[in-house]
Amino acid sequence: AGCDRLTISPDLLEKLDADHGELPRRLVAGAAESVQVTPIDGARFAADLAADPMATEKLASGIDAFAKDLEALRQTIRARL
Predict the structure, then answer these.
(1) What counts of helices (H) and strands (E) characterise the chain?
(2) Exposed e or buried b per residue across 55-73, where buried means at least 16 C-beta atoms within 10 angstroms of its C-beta
(3) Which of the 8 DSSP states describes residue 14?
(4) Which of 5, 12, 16, 60 is the most exposed place for a label (fewest CB within 10 A)?
(5) pLDDT class for 3, splitting at 50, 70, 90?
(6) Which spans in the chain are helix H?
């Protein structure tokens, strides 16, 4: 369907497996190759991120959650060693 790598829940995998309907192609590699993407530098990225409160909040909460999960994993490993 045009997506090479994707993490999805087992529940959704089961629903997708049960669905035998039509699956039209939505993404075409050739079309993506013809798109001109303007590169941005660090300053532009930071400015765009700061201008979007939702992105700033979600990025911060995602990093915090990752750090907490990493510490929990380290504690689990310590306990098992």
Answers:
(1) 4, 0
(2) eeeeeeeeeeeeeeeeeee
(3) H
(4) 5
(5) low
(6) 10-18, 29-33, 42-50, 53-80
Please state, in angstroms and rounded to a whole number, the distance separating the CA atoms of residues 2 and 61: 29
**Which residue type, as a one-letter code, is found at position 60?**
A
Question: What are the pLDDT digits (tens) for 33-70?
Answer: 888 888 999 999 999 999 999 998 999 999 999 999 99
Confidence class of residue 4 from pLDDT cuts 50, 70 and 90? low
Average pLDDT over residues 24-32: 81
Take residue 10 and report the two structure tokens written for it.
């087992």
What residue type is 69 in one-letter code? D
Q: State the residue for tokens 């999805």.
A: 8
Q: How far apart are CA 35 and CA 31, in angstroms?
A: 7
Both tokens of 64, joined, read 């915090």
Separation of alpha carbons 15 and 24, rounded Å? 18
Q: Where are the domains of the chain?
A: 10-80
